[in-house]
Amino acid sequence: MKEKIILLGYMGSGKSTIGQLLAHALDLPFEDLDSFIERKEGKKISEIFALKGEIYFRKQEQAYLSELLDSPTPMVIALGGGTPCYGKAMELIRAASPYSFYLQLPTSELMARLLPEKAKRPLIAHLSFEDIEEFLNKHLFERFPFYTQAHFILPCHGLSPTEIVEKIKTQIK
């Protein structure tokens, strides 16, 4: 495998979990873009948002994404949920690799995954339980045109992480 494999999707869709399993199965390095940004900036994503705002964060995110995509090392990269929706991210991703995968899940499953970790998710931490479903539906609607530019759309509802990894492996030549 000489290519990068890029996983995208909404927060809670399993990008990091699947990315680690896939990287292990393919004997490739794994990079979580959010973790990469936190190491480079020396701050948590939530701190960057709070201290410098979303515009600063999105500019840095794009620069760090480019850095990973430009690296000659084949790897599995898990993007942040919003990464594909800003700047030229999808253009860069599609040009860098033929293997971008949208891990698609319905709102109900995303809610079940996100509610237990609500406090650790800056985008929903401030929302009431009642407002989260509406927020997720609106966000998914807005992000759908970006997510669906991935080379592969992988419906993940009801699949185990191992099954998702196997589905991705069948698409990689």
From TrEMBL:
Matches recorded under Gene3D superfamilies: P-loop containing nucleotide triphosphate hydrolases (3.40.50.300)
GO biological process per UniProt: amino acid biosynthetic process; aromatic amino acid family biosynthetic process; chorismate biosynthetic process
Catalytic reactions of this protein: shikimate + ATP = 3-phosphoshikimate + ADP + H(+)
Protein's pathway: Metabolic intermediate biosynthesis; chorismate biosynthesis; chorismate from D-erythrose 4-phosphate and phosphoenolpyruvate: step 5/7
Cellular component, GO annotation: cytosol
Cofactor note: Binds 1 Mg(2+) ion per subunit.
Positions with a binding annotation for ATP: G12, S13, G14, K15, S16, T17, R121
GO-annotated molecular function: ATP binding; magnesium ion binding; shikimate kinase activity
Amino-acid biosynthesis keyword on record: yes
Localization terms from the record: Cytoplasm
Binding site for Mg(2+): S16
Required co-factors: Mg(2+)
HAMAP family: Shikimate_kinase
Similarity comment: family membership: Belongs to the shikimate kinase family.
Function in brief: Catalyzes the specific phosphorylation of the 3-hydroxyl group of shikimic acid using ATP as a cosubstrate.
Protein name: Shikimate kinase
Organism: Capnocytophaga granulosa
